[in-house]
Amino acid sequence: MVNRRKFIKNTSLGGAFLLAGNTFADIIPVGNITTSIDNEPIVISTWDFGIAANAAAWQILKNNGRALDAVEQGAMVPEADPKNQSVGLGGLPDRDGIVTLDACIMDEFGNCGSVAALQNILHPISVARRVMEKTPHVMLVGNGALQFALQQGFKQVNLLTPESEKDWKEWLKKAEYKPVNNIENKSFSPRKLPGNEYNHDTIGMLALDSKGNLSGACTTSGMAYKIHGRVGDSPIIGAGLYVDNEIGGATSTGVGEEVIRNVGSFLVVELMRQGYPPEEACKEAVMRIIKKKPETAKEVQVGFLALNKKGQYGAYAIQKGFSFAVCNKQNQELLIKGNSYY
Ligand code: SD4
Fold this sequence. Notes:
The protein is α+β, with helices and mostly antiparallel strands. It has nine helices and 18 strands. Helix 1 packs antiparallel against helix 2, helix 2 runs antiparallel to helix 3 and helix 7 packs across helix 8.
Protein backbone atom coordinates (compact mmCIF):
# COMPACT_ATOMS: atom_id res chain seq x y z
CA MET A 1 0.00 0.00 0.00
CA VAL A 2 1.30 3.45 -0.88
CA ASN A 3 0.00 6.10 1.47
CA ARG A 4 2.12 8.95 0.28
CA ARG A 5 0.36 11.22 -2.20
CA LYS A 6 1.69 10.91 -5.70
CA PHE A 7 1.30 13.42 -8.44
CA ILE A 8 1.58 12.68 -12.12
CA LYS A 9 1.83 15.57 -14.52
CA ASN A 10 0.32 14.10 -17.60
CA THR A 11 -1.72 11.07 -18.47
CA SER A 12 -0.23 10.03 -21.76
CA LEU A 13 3.35 9.90 -22.85
CA GLY A 14 2.82 7.83 -25.94
CA GLY A 15 0.91 5.33 -23.83
CA ALA A 16 4.12 4.56 -21.97
CA PHE A 17 5.01 4.36 -18.31
CA LEU A 18 4.98 7.56 -16.35
CA LEU A 19 7.04 8.69 -13.46
CA ALA A 20 5.19 9.24 -10.21
CA GLY A 21 7.24 10.78 -7.43
CA ASN A 22 11.01 10.69 -7.62
CA THR A 23 12.16 7.12 -7.42
CA PHE A 24 12.40 4.46 -10.06
CA ALA A 25 10.25 2.20 -7.92
CA ASP A 26 7.43 4.67 -8.34
CA ILE A 27 7.09 4.09 -12.06
CA ILE A 28 3.61 2.84 -12.75
CA PRO A 29 1.43 2.64 -15.82
CA VAL A 30 -1.46 5.09 -16.00
CA GLY A 31 -3.99 6.61 -18.34
CA ASN A 32 -5.22 4.27 -20.99
CA ILE A 33 -3.05 1.48 -19.70
CA THR A 34 -4.73 -0.06 -16.70
CA THR A 35 -3.23 0.14 -13.23
CA SER A 36 -5.98 -2.16 -12.11
CA ILE A 37 -5.87 -5.92 -12.13
CA ASP A 38 -9.10 -7.68 -13.11
CA ASN A 39 -11.58 -7.76 -10.26
CA GLU A 40 -9.56 -5.29 -8.28
CA PRO A 41 -11.61 -2.33 -7.15
CA ILE A 42 -10.77 1.19 -8.16
CA VAL A 43 -12.30 4.61 -7.58
CA ILE A 44 -11.53 7.80 -9.48
CA SER A 45 -12.83 11.32 -9.02
CA THR A 46 -12.47 14.83 -10.33
CA TRP A 47 -10.10 17.45 -8.94
CA ASP A 48 -7.63 17.48 -6.08
CA PHE A 49 -10.35 17.13 -3.47
CA GLY A 50 -11.07 13.75 -5.03
CA ILE A 51 -8.18 12.38 -2.94
CA ALA A 52 -10.14 12.73 0.31
CA ALA A 53 -13.36 11.55 -1.31
CA ASN A 54 -11.63 8.49 -2.77
CA ALA A 55 -10.26 7.62 0.68
CA ALA A 56 -13.80 7.34 2.04
CA ALA A 57 -14.96 5.33 -0.97
CA TRP A 58 -11.96 3.06 -0.62
CA GLN A 59 -13.00 2.03 2.89
CA ILE A 60 -16.00 0.37 1.26
CA LEU A 61 -14.31 -0.98 -1.86
CA LYS A 62 -11.39 -2.58 -0.03
CA ASN A 63 -13.84 -4.60 2.07
CA ASN A 64 -15.57 -5.91 -1.05
CA GLY A 65 -18.41 -3.42 -0.65
CA ARG A 66 -20.68 -2.22 -3.40
CA ALA A 67 -19.53 0.52 -5.79
CA LEU A 68 -22.81 2.38 -5.19
CA ASP A 69 -22.13 2.66 -1.45
CA ALA A 70 -18.57 3.69 -2.19
CA VAL A 71 -19.48 6.59 -4.48
CA GLU A 72 -22.17 7.85 -2.09
CA GLN A 73 -19.77 7.82 0.87
CA GLY A 74 -17.05 9.39 -1.23
CA ALA A 75 -19.23 12.20 -2.55
CA MET A 76 -20.36 13.01 0.98
CA VAL A 77 -16.83 14.11 1.93
CA PRO A 78 -16.62 17.30 -0.17
CA GLU A 79 -20.35 17.89 0.43
CA ALA A 80 -19.64 18.25 4.15
CA ASP A 81 -16.42 20.26 3.76
CA PRO A 82 -17.13 23.97 4.43
CA LYS A 83 -13.82 24.95 2.83
CA ASN A 84 -14.86 23.51 -0.50
CA GLN A 85 -16.70 26.34 -2.21
CA SER A 86 -18.03 24.36 -5.14
CA VAL A 87 -19.78 21.42 -3.50
CA GLY A 88 -22.36 21.21 -0.70
CA LEU A 89 -21.80 23.14 2.53
CA GLY A 90 -19.89 26.34 1.82
CA GLY A 91 -20.67 26.21 -1.90
CA LEU A 92 -20.76 29.62 -3.55
CA PRO A 93 -24.35 30.79 -3.90
CA ASP A 94 -26.32 31.98 -6.90
CA ARG A 95 -26.48 35.69 -7.68
CA ASP A 96 -29.27 36.11 -5.12
CA GLY A 97 -27.06 34.66 -2.39
CA ILE A 98 -28.87 31.31 -2.23
CA VAL A 99 -26.90 28.05 -2.24
CA THR A 100 -28.62 25.53 -4.53
CA LEU A 101 -27.25 22.03 -4.98
CA ASP A 102 -27.36 19.55 -7.87
CA ALA A 103 -26.50 15.85 -7.57
CA CYS A 104 -27.09 12.49 -9.18
CA ILE A 105 -26.17 8.86 -8.69
CA MET A 106 -26.32 5.78 -10.92
CA ASP A 107 -25.85 2.09 -10.15
CA GLU A 108 -24.84 -1.10 -11.93
CA PHE A 109 -28.42 -1.91 -12.91
CA GLY A 110 -28.93 1.38 -14.72
CA ASN A 111 -31.01 2.75 -11.84
CA CYS A 112 -30.53 6.43 -11.26
CA GLY A 113 -31.68 9.25 -9.03
CA SER A 114 -31.18 12.97 -9.09
CA VAL A 115 -31.95 16.24 -7.31
CA ALA A 116 -31.58 19.73 -8.73
CA ALA A 117 -31.73 23.21 -7.20
CA LEU A 118 -32.01 21.67 -3.76
CA GLN A 119 -31.60 24.07 -0.83
CA ASN A 120 -30.57 23.58 2.81
CA ILE A 121 -29.67 19.90 2.69
CA LEU A 122 -26.13 18.82 3.52
CA HIS A 123 -26.00 15.63 1.45
CA PRO A 124 -27.83 15.98 -1.86
CA ILE A 125 -26.12 12.80 -3.10
CA SER A 126 -27.97 10.80 -0.44
CA VAL A 127 -31.26 12.45 -1.37
CA ALA A 128 -30.56 11.51 -5.00
CA ARG A 129 -30.03 7.93 -3.89
CA ARG A 130 -33.35 7.99 -2.02
CA VAL A 131 -35.07 9.31 -5.16
CA MET A 132 -33.59 6.32 -6.99
CA GLU A 133 -34.47 3.76 -4.35
CA LYS A 134 -37.69 5.05 -2.81
CA THR A 135 -39.60 6.65 -5.66
CA PRO A 136 -40.67 5.63 -9.16
CA HIS A 137 -38.99 8.82 -10.44
CA VAL A 138 -35.51 9.80 -11.52
CA MET A 139 -35.37 13.50 -10.71
CA LEU A 140 -36.84 15.87 -8.13
CA VAL A 141 -36.19 19.60 -8.19
CA GLY A 142 -36.40 22.68 -6.00
CA ASN A 143 -38.97 22.78 -3.26
CA GLY A 144 -40.32 19.34 -4.19
CA ALA A 145 -36.87 17.86 -3.71
CA LEU A 146 -36.59 19.62 -0.35
CA GLN A 147 -39.98 18.37 0.81
CA PHE A 148 -39.02 14.83 -0.20
CA ALA A 149 -35.71 15.11 1.67
CA LEU A 150 -37.46 16.30 4.81
CA GLN A 151 -39.98 13.45 4.59
CA GLN A 152 -37.02 11.08 4.35
CA GLY A 153 -35.61 12.45 7.59
CA PHE A 154 -32.90 14.77 6.27
CA LYS A 155 -32.42 17.88 8.41
CA GLN A 156 -32.32 21.46 7.16
CA VAL A 157 -29.01 23.29 7.50
CA ASN A 158 -27.72 26.68 6.46
CA LEU A 159 -25.29 25.98 3.62
CA LEU A 160 -24.07 29.57 3.17
CA THR A 161 -20.86 29.92 5.18
CA PRO A 162 -19.68 33.41 6.25
CA GLU A 163 -16.75 33.08 3.85
CA SER A 164 -18.93 32.28 0.83
CA GLU A 165 -21.35 35.04 1.80
CA LYS A 166 -18.45 37.49 1.96
CA ASP A 167 -17.21 36.39 -1.48
CA TRP A 168 -20.70 36.73 -2.95
CA LYS A 169 -21.04 40.26 -1.55
CA GLU A 170 -17.65 41.13 -2.99
CA TRP A 171 -18.71 39.71 -6.38
CA LEU A 172 -21.93 41.72 -6.32
CA LYS A 173 -19.98 44.98 -6.14
CA LYS A 174 -18.52 44.63 -9.64
CA ALA A 175 -20.65 41.97 -11.26
CA GLU A 176 -23.63 43.97 -12.44
CA TYR A 177 -25.62 40.90 -11.45
CA LYS A 178 -24.36 38.98 -14.49
CA PRO A 179 -23.69 35.24 -14.19
CA VAL A 180 -20.06 34.33 -14.89
CA ASN A 181 -18.45 31.60 -16.86
CA ASN A 182 -15.94 29.72 -14.78
CA ILE A 183 -12.63 28.54 -16.04
CA GLU A 184 -10.59 26.42 -13.70
CA ASN A 185 -7.39 28.34 -13.96
CA LYS A 186 -5.76 30.86 -11.70
CA SER A 187 -7.34 33.99 -13.09
CA PHE A 188 -10.88 32.65 -13.04
CA SER A 189 -10.89 30.48 -9.95
CA PRO A 190 -13.16 31.76 -7.24
CA ARG A 191 -10.75 31.39 -4.36
CA LYS A 192 -7.09 30.89 -3.72
CA LEU A 193 -6.53 28.41 -0.91
CA PRO A 194 -3.60 28.15 1.50
CA GLY A 195 -0.65 26.40 -0.14
CA ASN A 196 -1.29 28.12 -3.44
CA GLU A 197 -3.95 25.62 -4.42
CA TYR A 198 -7.09 26.68 -6.16
CA ASN A 199 -10.59 25.71 -5.35
CA HIS A 200 -12.34 23.77 -8.04
CA ASP A 201 -15.63 22.48 -9.06
CA THR A 202 -17.96 19.56 -9.11
CA ILE A 203 -16.98 16.19 -7.79
CA GLY A 204 -17.73 13.41 -10.23
CA MET A 205 -16.81 9.96 -8.97
CA LEU A 206 -16.72 6.53 -10.64
CA ALA A 207 -16.06 3.23 -8.91
CA LEU A 208 -15.59 -0.39 -9.89
CA ASP A 209 -16.05 -2.89 -7.07
CA SER A 210 -14.59 -6.34 -6.46
CA LYS A 211 -17.59 -7.97 -8.12
CA GLY A 212 -16.81 -6.00 -11.26
CA ASN A 213 -19.80 -3.67 -10.90
CA LEU A 214 -19.70 0.02 -11.70
CA SER A 215 -21.48 3.00 -10.13
CA GLY A 216 -21.08 6.76 -10.28
CA ALA A 217 -21.99 9.92 -8.39
CA CYS A 218 -21.82 13.61 -9.17
CA THR A 219 -22.52 16.50 -6.77
CA THR A 220 -22.02 20.26 -6.91
CA SER A 221 -23.21 23.69 -5.88
CA GLY A 222 -22.97 24.48 -9.58
CA MET A 223 -21.71 27.56 -11.28
CA ALA A 224 -20.98 30.32 -8.80
CA TYR A 225 -23.34 33.32 -8.97
CA LYS A 226 -25.62 31.62 -11.49
CA ILE A 227 -29.14 32.92 -12.14
CA HIS A 228 -31.46 31.60 -9.45
CA GLY A 229 -33.05 28.39 -10.70
CA ARG A 230 -30.24 27.53 -13.10
CA VAL A 231 -29.45 23.82 -13.23
CA GLY A 232 -26.19 22.54 -14.69
CA ASP A 233 -25.12 19.22 -16.11
CA SER A 234 -24.26 17.58 -12.80
CA PRO A 235 -27.74 16.23 -11.91
CA ILE A 236 -28.61 15.36 -15.52
CA ILE A 237 -28.19 11.66 -16.24
CA GLY A 238 -26.24 11.35 -19.49
CA ALA A 239 -24.76 14.83 -19.17
CA GLY A 240 -22.94 15.07 -15.82
CA LEU A 241 -22.87 11.32 -15.22
CA TYR A 242 -23.57 8.08 -17.01
CA VAL A 243 -22.86 4.47 -16.10
CA ASP A 244 -23.38 1.38 -18.22
CA ASN A 245 -22.28 -1.68 -16.34
CA GLU A 246 -21.38 -3.50 -19.57
CA ILE A 247 -19.04 -0.76 -20.75
CA GLY A 248 -17.98 1.85 -18.20
CA GLY A 249 -18.87 5.17 -16.66
CA ALA A 250 -18.16 8.83 -17.30
CA THR A 251 -18.61 12.10 -15.46
CA SER A 252 -17.95 15.75 -16.16
CA THR A 253 -16.94 19.03 -14.62
CA GLY A 254 -16.90 22.55 -15.94
CA VAL A 255 -19.47 24.69 -17.67
CA GLY A 256 -22.54 22.50 -17.54
CA GLU A 257 -24.36 24.16 -20.41
CA GLU A 258 -21.73 22.89 -22.87
CA VAL A 259 -21.92 19.39 -21.40
CA ILE A 260 -25.72 19.27 -21.59
CA ARG A 261 -25.70 20.46 -25.21
CA ASN A 262 -23.56 17.48 -26.12
CA VAL A 263 -24.97 14.90 -23.66
CA GLY A 264 -21.35 14.55 -22.69
CA SER A 265 -21.09 11.62 -20.29
CA PHE A 266 -23.41 9.42 -22.33
CA LEU A 267 -21.33 10.24 -25.38
CA VAL A 268 -18.12 9.22 -23.60
CA VAL A 269 -19.62 5.87 -22.57
CA GLU A 270 -20.95 5.24 -26.09
CA LEU A 271 -17.52 6.00 -27.53
CA MET A 272 -15.99 3.48 -25.13
CA ARG A 273 -18.60 0.99 -26.36
CA GLN A 274 -17.20 1.56 -29.85
CA GLY A 275 -13.75 0.67 -28.57
CA TYR A 276 -12.30 4.06 -27.64
CA PRO A 277 -9.97 3.88 -24.61
CA PRO A 278 -11.18 6.16 -21.78
CA GLU A 279 -8.92 9.13 -22.49
CA GLU A 280 -9.64 9.01 -26.22
CA ALA A 281 -13.38 8.88 -25.53
CA CYS A 282 -13.10 11.93 -23.25
CA LYS A 283 -11.04 13.73 -25.86
CA GLU A 284 -13.57 13.07 -28.61
CA ALA A 285 -16.37 14.42 -26.40
CA VAL A 286 -14.31 17.55 -25.73
CA MET A 287 -13.63 17.93 -29.46
CA ARG A 288 -17.36 17.86 -30.21
CA ILE A 289 -17.83 20.81 -27.86
CA ILE A 290 -14.93 22.69 -29.42
CA LYS A 291 -16.09 21.94 -32.97
CA LYS A 292 -19.61 23.19 -32.36
CA LYS A 293 -18.60 26.39 -30.63
CA PRO A 294 -14.91 27.09 -31.15
CA GLU A 295 -15.09 30.68 -29.93
CA THR A 296 -17.03 29.81 -26.78
CA ALA A 297 -14.75 26.85 -26.08
CA LYS A 298 -11.71 29.14 -25.87
CA GLU A 299 -13.21 30.72 -22.78
CA VAL A 300 -14.76 27.86 -20.88
CA GLN A 301 -13.59 24.74 -19.16
CA VAL A 302 -15.13 21.32 -19.55
CA GLY A 303 -13.41 18.14 -18.39
CA PHE A 304 -14.51 14.54 -18.73
CA LEU A 305 -13.36 11.60 -16.64
CA ALA A 306 -14.01 7.97 -17.59
CA LEU A 307 -13.53 4.48 -16.20
CA ASN A 308 -14.17 1.35 -18.20
CA LYS A 309 -15.22 -2.10 -17.13
CA LYS A 310 -11.61 -3.30 -17.09
CA GLY A 311 -10.58 -0.62 -14.59
CA GLN A 312 -8.84 1.51 -17.22
CA TYR A 313 -9.32 5.23 -16.76
CA GLY A 314 -8.63 8.50 -18.54
CA ALA A 315 -9.60 12.15 -18.71
CA TYR A 316 -9.48 15.08 -21.08
CA ALA A 317 -10.37 18.77 -20.72
CA ILE A 318 -10.66 21.87 -22.88
CA GLN A 319 -8.38 23.96 -20.66
CA LYS A 320 -5.25 23.06 -18.76
CA GLY A 321 -5.39 22.39 -15.05
CA PHE A 322 -7.92 19.59 -14.79
CA SER A 323 -6.74 17.07 -12.23
CA PHE A 324 -8.28 13.82 -11.08
CA ALA A 325 -7.64 11.46 -8.20
CA VAL A 326 -7.20 7.71 -8.44
CA CYS A 327 -7.35 5.16 -5.65
CA ASN A 328 -6.82 1.41 -5.91
CA LYS A 329 -4.87 -1.27 -4.08
CA GLN A 330 -1.57 -0.08 -5.51
CA ASN A 331 -2.05 3.66 -5.01
CA GLN A 332 -4.20 5.28 -2.40
CA GLU A 333 -3.50 8.93 -3.18
CA LEU A 334 -2.63 9.33 -6.81
CA LEU A 335 -3.34 12.71 -8.39
CA ILE A 336 -3.12 12.97 -12.16
CA LYS A 337 -3.12 16.06 -14.29
CA GLY A 338 -5.26 15.30 -17.32
CA ASN A 339 -4.40 16.24 -20.87
CA SER A 340 -6.18 19.17 -22.45
CA TYR A 341 -6.82 20.81 -25.79
CA TYR A 342 -5.30 24.17 -24.87
C1 SD4 B 1 -22.25 23.06 -13.40
N1 SD4 B 1 -20.64 21.39 -14.00
O1 SD4 B 1 -23.11 23.40 -12.60
C2 SD4 B 1 -21.19 22.12 -12.90
C3 SD4 B 1 -20.24 22.86 -12.06
C4 SD4 B 1 -18.88 22.87 -12.52
O2 SD4 B 1 -17.23 24.24 -13.37
O3 SD4 B 1 -18.23 21.85 -12.56
N2 SD4 B 1 -18.43 24.06 -12.90
O4 SD4 B 1 -22.20 23.50 -14.55
